[in-house]
Amino acid sequence: MPELDLDLEGRLYDLVPVLALPEGDGLPEVVAARIRMQRVPAALRPPRRGLRVVAVALTPMLAVFMLLVASSSVRGWLADRLDSDDGGPVEFAPPGPPGFAPLPFVTDAPEPPEALGPRLSVAAAATEVGFEVLVPTDAALGPPAFAHTGHELGDGIALGWEAVGELVSPDPLGTGMLLIEIPGGALAPPFVNTGPASVQSVTVGDAEALWVEGPHDYLGPPDPGVFVPEQTPSTLVWQLPGLTLRLESWLPKARAIAIAETIEADPAGRSVVL
Amino acid sequence: MDTRAFLPGTDPARAVYQGAKEAGLDDELIERAQLGFVDAYEELVRRHRRAAVQVAYLVSGSRAEAEDIAQDAFVRAYMALPRFRRGARFRPWLFAIVANLARNARRSAGRRNRLVLEFEHHPSGPDEPGPETRVLAGENQRRLMAAVNALPDGARLVVALRYFADLSVAEVAAALGLRPGTVKSRLARAHERLRQALAEPPEVRSAEGASHA
Q1: What pLDDT shows up at residue A269?
Q2: B174·A127 Cβ contact <8 A
Q3: Intrachain domains B12-109 and B129-212 with the same fold
Q4: Residue B47's pLDDT band (boundaries 50, 70, 90)?
Q5: Is the pTM here over 0.90, yes or no?
Q6: Residues A271, A240: contact at Cβ < 8 Å?
Q7: Mean pLDDT of B55-72
Q8: pLDDT band at A103 (very low <50, low <70, confident <90, very high)
């Protein structure tokens, strides 16, 4: 680097004292206090082996309980119980398609969060989420054009493609397809059927998947007890190790599955990364 | 890596060693924080608070909101720690979160204005040897500041993050969602503009600088 640059850099650094930029002196204590007051992710709690064994044992029981919640008699009993416990009024969405349990949602939930947040560059969003982001390698599709990491996505990311070519959208923003990646998660359908949507069990490679065809309400984010309805197009939901993926588009089922199958986990449990 | 380490009179090898040592300390603290030790994360916040709040200020353009933005970013980063890749650098990841929140804050406030850097202290070092030298040093700093403020928005932000918040090129790139090569080229163009501005006669530049200050 030329010496003049070094001199200029030195002079720029010398401006720092007179700029008196903020120092954030009180931040460590405030941040620590906020963290101690908040619900901490399970993975950040000190490990307790005994509880882990109990959790493993309880998981099948919880699954059975969730299925029971689907029945109208149990829903009624649960609604009565929650109403009598000073909880918020609980309502149940219209019945879903056979085999899938609609989840309860709270009608006086806090204000819906900002949808998906602003459009970001894919690289910036991938850095922000802090996990390895997977992308389809479908040649016709090409790379994602933008990404979101808004509140609604929790710790996840949404990769976006513009409505070009085979990707169409009534969305005024021109989003043709979204691939949403959420760490962890479950394959259980977090939605209720509010329209002509149909739900089918399909496969993506060897993995079980769900195909929801037609507009439907997606209920998110997965904050405890709070589900915010949001209209989404046809959706393919499947899982890879450590990740739940949702492909939202107006593509036909076969094409959506073909795109999803280009995202493959490698033996190390990861996949194509940005 | 801090370019300041390569200014005359410093030892690059020592700077590299120091950088690795710092990253190692971060790794240790992150590992402990991932096990649930909040005090370890508090120490991590202490180590990076200054840069984080300065990124928040420079990107949002709001000194008043900078601490709140940095605070939110640190809490969000903590909640996302279980998925933080082992061995990844914490600072670029943190700064990307800070910058994203800062951009959101600027949009929410409807601000489309440009960041204008201003002197908070009198622009002459107290350790200058005499009154005339102090005046000259102050005038030079005013001219440089005016030249920085006259840079295009993108270039000014890159310069501010690089030199005033003391971020590495990689960290600036992560914060702004740019490739490191783009940051370097913007810095190079900014250097050229600054050199040209400083080469102009002082009378002309000081008049322009007064309008920005």
Answers
A1: 41
A2: yes
A3: no
A4: very high
A5: no
A6: yes
A7: 90
A8: very low
The per-residue pLDDT for A93 is 32
Closest-CA distance of chain A to residue B7, Å: 6
H helix or E strand, kind and range, residue A44: none
Residue with tokens 């109403």: A83
Write the pLDDT tens digit of every residue in B134-155: 666 677 888 888 899 888 888 8
Q: Give tens-digit pLDDT for A162-174.
A: 888 888 765 556 6
Its ipTM equals 0.76
Q: Are B82 and A35 an interchain contact pair (Cβ–Cβ within 8 Å)?
A: no
* CB-based contact A147:A120 (threshold 8 Å): yes
What's the CATH fold of domain B129-212? Arc Repressor Mutant, subunit A (1.10.10)
Per the CB < 8 A criterion, the answer to whether B56 and B113 are in contact is: no
Residue B119 to residue A130, Cβ atoms within 8 A: no
Contact A237, A246 (CB under 8 A): yes
Return the pLDDT at B108.
74
Q: Looking at beta carbons, which residues of chain B come within 8 Å of A16?
A: 163-164, 166
- What residues of A are in contact with residue B57 (Cβ under 8 Å)? 21-22
Closest residue to B159, CB basis, from A12, A34, A118: A12
Kindly give, in sequence order, each residue whose CB lies less than 8 Å from that of residue A90, ignoring residues fewer than 6 positions away: A78, A79, A82, A83, A104, A105, A106
Q: Which of B4, B6, B44, B78 to mutate to test the interface with A (most CBs of A within 10 A)?
A: B78
Residues found in chain B:
213
Hey, what are A92's tokens?
Answer: 């149940």
Q: Which residue of A has its CA nearest to B119?
A: A19
What does the pLDDT read at residue B40? 92
Q: Nearest CB to B177: which of A9, A38, A121?
A: A121
Residues of B with Cβ-Cβ distance to A24 under 8 angstroms: 49-50, 52-54, 66-67, 70
Residue type, A144: P
Residues facing residue A228 across a β-bridge: A220
Distances (CA, A) of A41 to A84, A155, A160, A244: 29, 11, 28, 18
**Does A16 contact B163 at a Cβ distance shorter than 8 Å?**
yes
Q: What is the mean pLDDT of residues A258-266?
A: 81
The tokens describing A44, both together, are 């950040």
Chains A–B, number of C-beta pairs less than 8 Å apart:
182
Q: Residue ranges of the domains in chain B? A: 12-109, 129-212
Fill in the amino acid letter for B164: F
CATH architecture, domain B12-109: Orthogonal Bundle (1.10)
